[in-house]
Amino acid sequence: MVCHGQQFSILGCGLRTRKHNPSALSGVIAGGAVGDALGGAVEFMSRAGILQRYGGKDKITADTQMTLYTAEGLLRGLMRGLHKGVTSYTQAVAHAYLR
Predict the structure, then answer these.
(1) Residue 91 CA neighbour count, 13 Å, CB half
(2) How confident is the model at residue 13 (pLDDT cuts 50, 70, 90)?
(3) Which tens digit of pLDDT belongs to each residue from 49-94?
(4) What is the DSSP string of 26-38?
(5) Strands 6-7 and 2-3
(6) Which helix (H) or strand (E) holds 7?
(7) Residue 9 contacts residue 18 (beta carbons within 8 Å)
(8) DSSP letters along 37-55, please?
């Protein structure tokens, strides 16, 4: 990716010192596969059917919430960097946590 005349990894502007990390990418893909496998048993069930069979544990955990907020902040930081040419990933993630 080229941003402001400089070459960057797929992670975008602002992450100049980071290179594409194959093991991190592998971890993301493996994590998605594990999540898909765990959800496979209930994939085509209705919410009511899932609750009837497995009980009322229908809420995501705090770990998942923090992962989603972190991802949101990183994406917002990336988009700000690409569109405005300046960003702070720390501030973008902190703002996502405070929502």
Answers:
(1) 7
(2) very low
(3) 888 888 766 567 777 788 889 989 999 999 999 999 999 999 999 9
(4) HHHHHHHHHHHHH
(5) antiparallel
(6) strand 6-7
(7) yes
(8) HHHGGGTTS-HHHHHHHH-
Question: What tokens were used for 43?
Answer: 């994939």
> Tokens 């493996």, residue?
30
Would the CA dihedral through 33, 71, 9, 15 be positive or negative? negative
Type of residue at 20? H
Tell me which H or E stretch contains 8.
none
Q: Which of 28, 4, 29 is nearest to 16 (CA)?
A: 4
Q: Which DSSP letter does residue 4 get?
A: T
For residues 69 and 2, what is the distance between their CA atoms, to the nearest angstrom? 27
- 8: pLDDT strictly greater than 70: no
